[in-house]
């Protein structure tokens, strides 16, 4: 690890390589450790809403006087970010609308810049990032290899003014490392804010029965227990969305992280029956019919993801409704594939400023999320937040406050009672 963390030690985890475990008891909700990002970058979509340096969300942010694109809390934050922002500042002006590096290219540029800055001062951090974080470069398929090459081309095109780039082979390795070990920084409703690299957090192994959860406080990652832990217990997070059945989860793990999970839940598949619940009928549905509908659902999810960028919101909503009608002939509303498409439909309704439609889908989703997700799930708290804020916006204050309080109960464990999200949430609850 980059430094000594009280109560945590590194060890060789059988079959997993390196890992972390606790050396003292931790209670549910207790902070194991907090760590700053090695490097991070704010999403372009969030520019103007969050400070580029500290990720504080507020109105009246000050604009960079040179490029007019980056925003900061004050001169202190702008000065603190200049070593990183200068990688983009002049290029933003020079390329104009043609400035379009990927988020991972922007993050890699910052990693390289920081590596140069710390080369002599902090060689140990360099060693951890480059030599100990796995890249799985040899496992990358052709599609991901093409994406990496595109990202590398973007790095050459947009960042050579302030960077001396390593050779192509080293860049391929670095992009593979960041792709496999980067963390998405999300807000309280799980909206994407940016991407970061946390070498200490990257040491934590995956389980579908996690013992801790990672949340974000500004640009720092905080790791809190979601169950009581005893000395010797391994620190385990989930790398993926836990809603889905075992086969789906392991397909995702193999595609993104190049391993399969062998936790107790994956061995027993105890929750799969509930997650794949079929509609009750007088004549039982044949297993072949259910298998066929699962294939249809997976295909529809892939198609919806591809069509998001090219179809209109009304077309996307129609696609959701059609797939829900098709699947609903076989699947119960609690089936995770039904819930997935309901979630997409809710998102489209929010985009189309249709709060009633969003609430209609959200209420159906939340009913089953509470049963299918583990305790203290951010997916559940974010749904309570979305619904609570929609209710409040429609002046349904009583039900809105109830939903926000349920979100707060989860977030006090996941984020800590003193997190700024909780401070703001308490203000929302007391407004009416």
Number of β-strand runs? 12
What's the CATH class label of the largest domain? Mainly Alpha
CATH topology of the largest domain: Serine Threonine Protein Phosphatase 5, Tetratricopeptide repeat
Largest sheet: 3 strands, antiparallel
CATH architecture of the largest domain: Alpha Horseshoe
Helix and strand element order: EEEEEEHHHHHEEEEEEHHHHHHHHHH
Name the CATH superfamily assignment of the largest domain: Tetratricopeptide repeat domain
For this entry, what is the oligomeric state of its chains? single chain
Report the radius of gyration as a whole number of Å: 23 Å
Mean pLDDT: 92
Helix content: 40-55%
Report strand %: 5-15%
Which residue ranges are poorly predicted, with pLDDT under 50 across at least 5 consecutive positions? 123-131
Structural class: mainly alpha
Strand order of the biggest β-sheet: 3-11-10
Taken from the alpha-carbon principal axes, the silhouette is globular
Domain SET: 6-240
Enzyme class: transferase
Protein name: [histone H3]-lysine(4) N-trimethyltransferase
GO biological process, one term: methylation
Notes on the structure:
There is one protein chain. With 432 residues, this protein is mainly α. The protein has three domains: 1-37 and 198-270, Beta Complex (Beta-clip-like); 45-185, Annexin V, domain 1 (Orthogonal Bundle); 274-430, Serine Threonine Protein Phosphatase 5, Tetratricopeptide repeat (Alpha Horseshoe), CATH 1.25.40. It is 50% helix and 12% strand. The strands form five sheets. The protein has a three-stranded antiparallel beta sheet, with no helix packed on it. It has helices spanning 75-95, 103-118, 123-132, 142-159, 168-181, 246-257, 264-268, 272-275, 287-307, 313-328, 336-351, 355-372, 378-393, 397-414, 420-430, and strands at 8-13, 17-22, 31-35, 39-42, 62-63, 71-72, 183-186, 192-197, 205-206, 212-217, 220-225, 236-237. The radius of gyration is 23 Å and the shape is globular. It catalyses: L-lysyl(4)-[histone H3] + 3 S-adenosyl-L-methionine = N(6),N(6),N(6)-trimethyl-L-lysyl(4)-[histone H3] + 3 S-adenosyl-L-homocysteine + 3 H(+). One of its GO terms (biological process) is methylation. Its EC number is 2.1.1.354. Residues 51-89 form the MYND-type domain. Pfam families: SET, zf-MYND.
């Amino acid at each position: 690890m980059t430094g000594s963390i009280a109560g945590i030690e590194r060890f060789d985890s059988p079959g997993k390589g390196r890992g972390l475990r606790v050396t003292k008891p931790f209670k549910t909700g207790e902070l194991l450790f907090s760590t700053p990002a090695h490097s991070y970058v704010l999403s372009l979509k969030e520019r103007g809403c969050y400070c580029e340096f500290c990720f504080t969300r507020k109105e009246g942010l000050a604009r960079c006087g040179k490029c007019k694109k980056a925003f900061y809390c004050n001169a202190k934050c702008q000065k603190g970010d200049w070593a990183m922002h200068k990688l983009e500042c002049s290029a933003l002006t020079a390329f104009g609308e043609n400035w379009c590096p990927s988020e991972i290219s922007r993050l890699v540029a910052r990693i390289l810049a920081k590596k140069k800055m710390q080369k002599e001062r902090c060689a140990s951090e360099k060693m951890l990032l480059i030599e100990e974080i796995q890249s799985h470069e040899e496992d990358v398929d052709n599609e991901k290899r093409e994406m990496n090459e595109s990202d590398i081309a973007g790095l050459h095109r947009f960042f050579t003014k302030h960077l001396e780039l390593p050779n192509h082979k080293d860049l391929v390795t670095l992009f593979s490392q960041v792709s496999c070990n980067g963390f998405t920084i999300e807000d309280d409703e799980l909206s994407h804010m940016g991407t970061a690299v946390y070498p200490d957090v990257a040491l934590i192994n995956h389980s579908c029965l996690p013992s801790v959860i990672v949340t974000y406080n500004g640009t720092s990652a905080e790791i809190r227990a979601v169950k009581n832990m005893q000395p010797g217990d391994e620190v385990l997070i989930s790398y993926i969305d836990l809603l889905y059945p075992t086969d789906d989860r392991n397909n995702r793990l193999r595609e993104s992280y190049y391993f399969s999970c062998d936790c107790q839940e994956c061995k027993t598949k105890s929750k799969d029956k509930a997650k794949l619940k079929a509609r009750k009928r007088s004549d039982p549905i044949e297993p072949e019919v259910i298998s066929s509908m699962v294939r249809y659902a997976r295909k529809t999810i892939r198609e919806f993801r591809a069509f998001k960028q090219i179809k209109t919101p009304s077309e996307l909503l129609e696609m959701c409704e059609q797939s829900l009608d098709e699947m609903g002939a076989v699947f119960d509303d609690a089936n995770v594939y039904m819930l997935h498409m309901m979630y997409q439909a809710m998102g489209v309704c929010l985009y189309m400023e249709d709060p009633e439609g969003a609430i209609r889908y959200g209420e159906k989703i939340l009913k089953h999320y509470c049963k299918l997700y583990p305790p203290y799930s951010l997916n559940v708290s974010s749904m309570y937040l979305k619904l609570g804020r929609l209710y409040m916006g429609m002046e349904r204050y009583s039900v809105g406050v109830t939903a926000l309080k349920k979100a707060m109960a989860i977030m006090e464990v996941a984020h800590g009672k003193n997190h700024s999200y909780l401070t703001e949430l308490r203000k929302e609850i007391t407004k009416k």
